C-alpha cells in the first residue's frame, strides 16, 4: 500500500479524476501535491461554512452554508442543492464490499415543464411618503387610520384575534398637575392688579432661572400674545409682558430656538405698533416699551442670528417697510429705527443712513408732533448713527468744511444739527464720511 500524506489517496481519487480528464500517466509526486492542496481547500471551505452556521444560531451545517462559503471564497457555487428539503441518498453495490452512495435526483419531464403556464409577472416595486404624525398628532389622510378605527370602545377587551395588531390612539401632550399649578400661580402673580411688586418679581425670577419649564413655553407665549393683542393701551402691562418674554429667552435651561418664530411677531408688534399706552397726545410712556422690545430684539439677533440665517433679513425687511412709510405715526418710526439699530451697524449704514436724508425731510414737516416727541426721535436717530463709530478705526484729525458739507448732504440739515450738538458729534461725522 502506497503512503499517502492526506486522507485523499493519490493512487485512487486523484488518479481517477485525472484519468477522467484524459491524463493517463500522472506522476506520483504530482498526485500527492494535488491531494494536499485539495484537502487544504476543503478545510478552508468548511471553516467559512461553519462561520455562517454559527452566525445563523444553528448546530447543523446546511448546503446553503456551503454555498455562501463558496461565494465568499470567490468560487462558483454548486447549483441544484436546496436546503429546504432533506437530501436523499441511494445505495449502489458495485461489488463485494464496495458500496457507492449517491443522491437520488428527481426525474423531470421537459415536455411538461415547457407546456406549463408562465407564472404571473410580479408587481413593480413602488413607494410613497406621507406624514405619520405632526407634533404628535396624526393628520386625517387616507394612509393613516381613521379615529373611529383607533379609538377602542369602553369595556372592550384588550385581547385581539390572531394576526391583528392593536393601534393605540395618539393622545395630545397634557401638562402634569404640578406644571398646571405653577402656570396658574405665575399668571395670577403677573396679572394681579395690586401694587405687590414682590410677587411679580419672584415670578419673573422663577421664569428667568428655574429649570423644567420647557413644556410651559408655548403656554406663556400664547398668554403674552393674548395680552398684547387686547391691551395695547396699557403700557405698564405691555412692559410686564416684555419682561416675561425676556425671562424666557434668557433662561439658560430652556431650549428656546423652536419658539423664536412665535416670539418675533410679539416683539415687532411692540416695536412698530401705531398706538401703545395712553391715547393722550404727547404721552411718552410708549417709548420705554419700544426701547425694551428693541433690547430683546438685539439679544435674539445676537444669539440666534447665525442659527436662523433668514432671521435678520426678514426682521430688517419688516422694519424697513415701517421706516419708509411716511403715513406711519412717530412712534412707529421710532421703533423701526431703534429695531434696525439693534440688528447691527451694517443695517444702519445700508438701510437707515442710505435713506436718512429723504426720511428727515418728510418726518420733519409732519404736524401734531410735540417737542418732547421730536427730541426722543432725534435721540434715537443719533444713537443709530453713533453705532457706526468704530473706536479702533484710524480717523482723520478733524472735520474739514468740505467734509462737513458732505455730511450734511448725506443726512440732511436737521439730522446734521442734532449730531453736531452731541459731545461726540465729530466722531460720528468722521465715521459716516469715512464709511
Q: Give the total of domains.
A: 3
Identify the CATH homologous superfamily of the largest domain. Answer: TAF6, C-terminal HEAT repeat domain
CATH-scheme architecture of the largest domain: Alpha Horseshoe
Query: Uncertain runs with pLDDT below 50, 5 residues or more?
Result: 153-160
Element order: H for helix, E for strand: HHHEEHHHHHHHHHHHHHHH
Q: What's the alpha carbon Rg, rounded to whole Å?
A: 43 Å
Q: Within the largest sheet, what's the order of strands? A: 1-2
How many strands, what sense, and barrel or not for the largest sheet? 2 strands, antiparallel
Structural class: mainly alpha
Broad shape: elongated
Task: Please estimate the helix content.
Answer: 55-70%
- CATH class of the largest domain, named Mainly Alpha
End-to-end gap: 107 Å
Structure annotation, total helices:
18
Oligomer: single chain
The pLDDT mean sits at: 82
Number of strands: 2
Question: What report would you give on this structure?
Answer:
The protein has 18 helices and two strands. The protein folds into three domains: 10-104, Histone, subunit A (Orthogonal Bundle), CATH 1.10.20.10; 177-388, Alpha Horseshoe (Serine Threonine Protein Phosphatase 5, Tetratricopeptide repeat), CATH 1.25.40.770; 390-435, no CATH class. The protein has helices spanning 10-20, 28-55, 63-72, 110-115, 147-150, 177-191, 197-209, 217-230, 235-250, 260-272, 285-304, 311-324, 330-343, 345-364, 371-386, 401-411, 413-420, 425-434; strands spanning 89-95, 98-103. A hairpin with a 2-residue loop joins strand 1 (89-95) and strand 2. It has a two-stranded antiparallel ribbon. It is mainly alpha-helical and 435 residues long.
Amino acid at each position: 500500500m502506497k503512503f499517502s500524506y492526506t486522507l485523499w489517496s493519490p493512487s485512487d481519487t486523484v488518479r481517477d479524476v485525472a484519468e477522467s480528464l484524459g491524463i493517463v500517466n500522472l506522476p506520483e509526486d504530482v498526485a500527492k501535491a494535488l491531494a494536499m492542496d485539495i484537502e487544504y481547500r476543503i478545510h478552508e471551505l468548511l471553516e467559512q461554512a461553519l462561520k455562517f452556521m454559527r452566525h445563523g444560531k444553528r448546530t447543523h451545517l446546511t448546503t446553503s452554508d456551503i454555498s455562501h462559503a463558496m461565494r465568499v471564497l470567490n468560487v462558483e457555487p454548486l447549483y441544484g442543492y436546496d436546503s429546504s428539503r432533506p437530501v436523499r441518498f441511494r445505495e449502489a453495490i458495485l461489488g463485494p464490499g464496495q458500496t457507492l452512495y449517491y443522491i437520488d435526483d428527481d426525474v423531470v419531464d421537459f415536455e411538461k415543464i415547457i407546456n406549463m403556464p408562465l407564472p404571473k409577472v410580479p408587481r413593480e416595486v413602488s413607494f410613497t411618503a406621507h406624514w405619520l404624525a405632526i407634533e404628535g398628532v396624526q393628520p386625517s389622510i387616507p394612509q393613516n387610520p381613521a379615529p373611529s378605527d383607533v379609538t377602542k370602545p369602553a369595556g372592550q377587551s384588550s385581547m385581539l384575534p390572531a394576526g391583528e395588531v392593536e393601534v393605540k390612539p395618539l393622545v395630545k401632550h397634557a401638562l402634569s398637575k404640578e406644571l398646571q399649578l405653577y402656570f396658574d400661580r405665575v399668571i395670577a402673580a403677573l396679572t394681579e392688579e395690586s401694587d405687590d411688586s414682590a410677587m411679580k418679581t419672584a415670578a419673573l425670577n422663577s421664569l428667568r432661572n428655574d429649570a423644567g419649564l420647557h413644556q410651559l413655553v408655548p403656554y406663556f407665549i400664547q398668554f403674552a400674545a393674548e395680552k398684547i393683542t387686547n391691551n395695547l393701551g396699557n403700557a405698564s402691562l405691555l412692559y410686564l409682558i416684555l419682561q416675561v418674554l425676556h425671562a424666557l429667552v434668557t433662561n439658560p435651561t430652556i431650549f428656546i430656538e423652536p419658539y423664536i418664530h412665535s416670539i418675533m411677531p410679539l416683539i415687532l408688534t411692540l416695536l412698530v405698533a401705531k398706538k401703545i399706552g395712553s391715547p393722550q397726545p404727547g404721552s411718552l410712556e410708549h417709548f420705554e416699551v419700544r426701547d425694551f422690545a428693541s433690547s430683546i430684539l438685539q439679544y435674539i439677533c445676537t444669539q440666534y442670528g447665525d442659527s436662523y440665517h433668514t432671521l435678520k433679513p426678514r426682521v430688517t425687511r419688516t422694519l424697513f417697510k415701517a421706516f419708509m412709510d411716511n403715513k406711519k405715526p412717530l412712534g412707529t418710526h421710532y421703533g423701526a429705527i431703534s429695531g434696525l439699530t439693534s440688528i447691527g451697524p451694517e443695517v444702519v449704514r445700508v438701510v437707515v443712513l442710505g435713506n436718512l436724508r429723504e426720511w428727515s425731510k418728510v418726518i420733519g414737516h409732519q404736524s401734531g408732533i410735540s417737542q418732547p416727541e421730536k427730541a426722543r426721535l432725534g435721540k434715537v436717530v443719533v444713537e443709530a448713527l453713533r453705532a457706526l463709530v468704530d473706536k479702533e478705526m484710524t480717523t482723520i484729525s478733524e472735520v474739514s468744511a468740505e467734509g462737513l458739507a458732505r455730511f450734511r448732504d448725506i443726512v440732511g440739515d436737521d439730522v446734521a444739527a442734532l449730531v453736531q450738538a452731541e459731545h461726540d458729534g465729530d466722531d460720528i461725522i468722521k465715521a459716516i464720511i469715512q464709511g
